[in-house]
Write a structure and sequence with these properties.
Two copies of one chain form a homodimer.
Chain A: H1 14-39, E1 43-47, E2 59-61, H2 64-75, H3 88-125, H4 132-150
Antiparallel strand pairs in A: 1-2
Chain B binds a DNA duplex through residues 1-6, 15-16, 18-20, 23-24, 27, 30-31.
DNA sequence: GCACCTATCTATAATTC
DNA sequence: TGAATTATAGATAGGTG
C-alpha cells in the first residue's frame, strides 16, 4: 500500500522498521475496532513493542480489562475445540436466546445490540458508576447464573485458571 | 475499501454482516502476521465469532499455544503498568459508551430482560459452565458495582478479574 | 450459502517539509 | 525527528454464477 511492494521479511533498516511498526500498529488497532463494531463480535489485540525498546508496554485493544477478560477466557479453555456438543440445558438456553434475538431484530436492532455491548464493556471495564437500571441488569444476570448453578449439569468442564 | 464507503456501525443485514466478518477477519490475521514479521515483534489476535453462532471457536493468531503465552504474559503484568498507555483507547471506549448510555436510558423493562438474556448468552457462548468459584467472582463483582453506586465517581480504573 | 471478480476505498512506503 | 503529502499496493463491498 505504498510506493513500492514490500517484501514480507524483517525490515533491517532501524528507522524504516520503527516507522512501519508505528503506522501498521495504528492501522491494526483501527481494523480490530472496526471488525468489532461492524460485526458485533468480541476481539482483542495485543502488540508488543520491539524487544530492545525500553518501554515494553504493549499496544492493546480494547481496554486492558476487556483484553484480559478475553485472554483469560481463551486460556481457560484448553480443550476449546470440542465445544460442539452441548447439553440439553444449553441447547434450551440457546433456543430461547435465538427467539429473543428475533424479537430484538424486529424492534430496534441497532440500539439494542449496542446496549448489550455497552453493558458488557462497562461491567468488565468497571470504569464508571452504574445506575439503578444497570444494577437491575446485573441482578438479572446473577439470577440467571444462580439458576444455572442449581441445575444438574452433565457436562462439567474444568477451568484451568 | 470496496464499491462503497461503509458506515462504522453494526451491520444489520445478517448475510452481509457474516460475509464482512469472514473477509475482515482473514485480512486482520494477515495484517497481524505481517506486522510481526516485518517488525520482529510479538503480537496476538483473538477474534470470537458472532455470539449466536453455535461454534464458539475463536480465530486465533498465531497458534493457540503462542497466543496463550502472549496473553499470559500480558495478564502477568503489574496492573498500573498495563493501564498507562491506554488513554486513547479508553477515551474512545468512553465516548462510545457515553453515547450508548443515552440509548440505554430509554429502554423499557421488557427490553432490559432481553439484554440480560443476551449478556448471559455471551457468557454461555464461550462454552463455560459456571461453578461455585465463578459465582463467587460474580458476587464480588456485584458488591463492587454496589459500592460504586454509593460512591462519588473516583475515575479510577480497576481490574475486576 | 460459496467462490470469484473488480471498482473503489484504505492503508501505507516513500518522500517532502 | 517528526508531522504532512502523495502515489500505489492492498483490502474489500457489492455483484455474478
Amino acid at each position: 500500500m505504498g510506493r513500492k511492494k514490500v517484501k514480507l521479511a524483517w525490515i533491517t533498516n532501524d528507522a524504516t522498521r520503527r516507522t512501519t511498526f508505528e503506522k501498521r500498529k495504528k492501522g491494526l488497532v483501527k481494523k480490530v475496532s472496526e471488525l468489532a463494531t461492524l460485526c458485533g463480535v468480541e476481539a482483542c489485540l495485543v502488540v508488543y513493542g520491539p524487544q530492545d525498546a525500553v518501554e515494553a508496554e504493549p499496544e492493546v485493544w480494547p481496554s486492558p480489562a476487556e483484553t484480559a477478560r478475553v485472554a483469560t477466557r481463551f486460556n481457560s479453555m484448553p480443550e476449546m475445540y470440542r465445544w460442539r456438543k452441548m447439553t440439553d440445558q444449553e441447547d434450551f438456553l440457546r433456543q430461547r436466546v435465538a427467539k429473543l434475538q428475533d424479537q430484538l431484530r424486529r424492534q430496534d436492532r441497532e440500539s439494542r445490540e449496542l446496549e448489550v455491548s455497552l453493558f458488557a464493556h462497562e461491567i468488565m471495564a468497571g470504569g464508571r458508576i452504574l445506575d439503578d437500571a444497570d444494577l437491575n441488569d446485573a441482578m438479572g444476570l446473577m439470577q440467571m447464573i444462580d439458576l444455572k448453578l442449581k441445575q444438574p449439569n452433565p457436562l462439567k468442564i474444568q477451568n484451568m485458571s
